[in-house]
Amino acid sequence: MLEVKNLSVSYGDVPVLRQFSFSVNEKSVVTLVGANAAGKTTTIKTISGLLPSQSGEIWFEGERVDQLPAHHRVERGIIQVPEGRKVFPYMSIYENLLIGAYTKNARKQMKSSLEYVYSLFPILEERQSQMAGTLSGGQQQMLAIGRGLMSLPKILMLDEPSLGLAPIIVSQMFSILKEINDQGTTVLLVEQNVYQSLRMSDYAFVIENGQLVKEGEARSLSEDPEIIKAYIGIHA
Prior knowledge:
Oligomer: single chain
Strand content: 25-35%
Distance between the termini: 31 Å
CATH superfamily of the domain at 1-77 and 155-164 and 187-236: P-loop containing nucleotide triphosphate hydrolases
Number of helices: 11
Helix content: 25-40%
Shape: globular
Order of helices and strands: EEEHEEHEHHHHHEHEHEEHH
Largest sheet: 6 strands, mixed
């Protein structure tokens, strides 16, 4: 579904990604594993069109998309849920969700999408008139994911969805992400909780200093001594 070929990205004169290549199969869950500043967030921002690339190609469903503006990539089903939720605090839950359905196709299916989001996150329906800024961190993350789903994603890219959340909320979040994937949505995950993300993923790519250093089935990597030592530690 998604193929990234020899992607290089810099912030000014500082290179972040260096000839980074990876692919994501349709209806799979794929995790990018790496330390802070390894280039994980830069990767998904570049796929989304929020950052320009210096070189390389991004292909989605057989079409090259790296020259397209971000909103055209959204129309094709490339959806990112950003780190830190980024909800609109002075708008209601309902209004935040409607913003997600701004493309032509998403507007046509807005009613069914809203029902789907409310089925995943009943508390959002219960509090739909509440201002987003008054929600807890976990509820705001639910809203951010729900807003992404309103855009009819073919691939849903999530940047640190468990950041700052209590452990019980984290477990619920991963269960919901698995359910979203089971419904047919491809998931690309950047996540500090490597243990949880590898448990739910099909495949994983390890990135260090902007370069691919290891890849494999997620279950195998979760048992790799080097991965355990570097990224999982006490969770193992």
